Amino acid sequence: MPYVNIKITREGNVTPEQKRQLIEGATKLLADVLHKNTKTLVVTIDEVDMDNWGIGGVPVTELRKIAKEKAAAEAKAAEAAAKEEAKAKKKAEKEMAKAAKAEEKAKKEAEKAAAKAAEAAAKEEAKAKKAEEKAAKKEKKSKKK
Questions:
Q1: SS3 category, 35
Q2: Counting Cβ atoms within 10 Å, is residue 93 exposed (0-12), middle (13-18) or buried (19+)?
Q3: What CATH architecture does domain 3-48 belong to?
Q4: Is 2 one of the catalytic residues?
Q5: Residue 129 half-sphere exposure toward CB, CA atoms < 13 A
Q6: Which DSSP symbol is given to 49?
Q7: Around Cβ 42, how many Cβ atoms within 10 Å?
Q8: Mean pLDDT, the chain, as a whole number?
Q9: Which among 36, 43, 54, 144 could disulfide-bond with 59, CB atoms 3.0 to 4.6 Å apart, if both were Cys?
């Protein structure tokens, strides 16, 4: 007669219905795999207190405490990283705004310089034209003589 012993922790608050399903499922599995008569299959369920078992030499209550502390530390590190990222993003945005402002200022200064150069060129052109006209008048006068 096959005998199956299922051990579960008490922490899970396993309901009588869930236990019934475990007994039914284990019975069906053994009957299907081993081709045994279900009338002779025995399934028991033992509930183990959390302090009465461990893994790797460490009680599970301690392992869970360590895991909880580790998760909290990871969450704190992730939060700190997110804050640093937000801070870096804000700094980059400030730098970009500053660069855009400097670019706009340089553009305006270039436009002013171009306008001054155009104005100076126009003055030079007008001066040259006057000088040309003056030279043409002088030449005309000298031809008349």
A1: coil
A2: exposed
A3: 2-Layer Sandwich (3.30)
A4: yes
A5: 6
A6: -
A7: 13
A8: 92
A9: 54
Q: Which two tokens stand for residue 111?
A: 């436009």
Query: At 54, is the secondary structure helix, strand, or coil?
Result: strand
Instruction: Provide mean pLDDT across the span 74-80.
Output: 97
Q: How far is CA 43 from CA 24, 52, 98, 138, in A?
A: 9, 22, 75, 130
Region of 9 (left: φ > 0; alpha: ψ -120 to 50; beta: rest) is beta
* pLDDT attached to residue 145: 64
Q: How far is CA 136 from CA 121, 139, 140, 143, 144, in A?
A: 22, 5, 6, 10, 12
Alpha-carbon distance 45 to 25, whole Å?
A: 13
Q: For 90-109, what is the mean pLDDT?
A: 95
Domain boundaries, the chain: 3-48, 59-144
DSSP 8-state symbol, 72: H
**pTM as predicted:** 0.47
User: How far apart are the C-alpha atoms of 54 and 105, rounded to whole Å?
Assistant: 70
Length of the chain (residues): 145
The strand ranges marked E within the chain are: 3-9, 42-48, 54-55, 58-59
User: Which residue is catalytic, options 2, 4, 19, 22?
Assistant: 2
Q: Record the tokens describing residue 122, joined without a space.
A: 């126009």
